[in-house]
């Protein structure tokens, strides 16, 4: 690899796919920009589930809204706790 006629270091420094191949090793292809997999292992444009896929939803515990709500409650409790500490 290092005796290549051109400087391939930047190319090799790009993120790798890492999907498990049939041989048992990891795929060493370049991952598609913004994705974790190469174009043949699910990184191709249009592949994967759509955003906010309702068909894959089971309980909604980790939806963006549920996480935001829990954060708000946590922040409110933290604020109340600080206020109570200040009253002592
Ligand atoms: Zn791959």
What do these coordinates show?
The structure is a single chain. The protein has two domains: 1-44, no CATH class; 59-88. 5% of the residues are buried. The protein has three helices and no strands. The mean pLDDT is 91. The protein has helices at residues 9-13, 39-43, 64-87. With 88 residues, it is mainly α. Bound molecules: zinc ion.
Distance between the termini: 68 Å
Q: Tell me about the largest β-sheet.
A: none
- Sheet-strand content, in percent, reads under 5%
How many β-strands, per DSSP? Answer: 0
Which ranges are low-confidence, i.e. pLDDT below 50, for 5 or more consecutive residues?
none
Helix and strand pattern: HHH
Which of globular, elongated, flat, extended, rod-shaped describes the shape? elongated
Count of separate DSSP helical elements: 3
What would you report as the Rg, rounded to the nearest angstrom? 23 Å
Mean pLDDT: 91
Structural class: mainly alpha
**Distinct ligand kinds:** zinc ion
Tally the structural domains.
2
Helix content: 25-40%
Distinctive features:
mainly alpha, 88 residues, 0% strand, 3 helices, elongated, single chain
TL;DR?
This protein is mainly α.
Task: Give a topology summary.
Layout: H1 9-13, H2 39-43, H3 64-87
The protein binds zinc ion.
């Amino acid at each position: 690899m290092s005796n290549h006629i051109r400087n391939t270091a930047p190319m090799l420094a790009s993120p790798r796919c890492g999907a498990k191949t049939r041989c048992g090793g990891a795929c060493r292809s370049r991952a598609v920009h913004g994705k974790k997999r190469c174009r043949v292992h699910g990184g191709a444009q249009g592949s994967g589930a759509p955003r906010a896929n309702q068909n894959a939803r089971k309980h909604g515990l980790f939806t963006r809204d549920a996480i935001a709500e829990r954060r708000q409650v946590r922040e409110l409790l933290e604020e109340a706790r600080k206020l109570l500490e200040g009253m002592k």
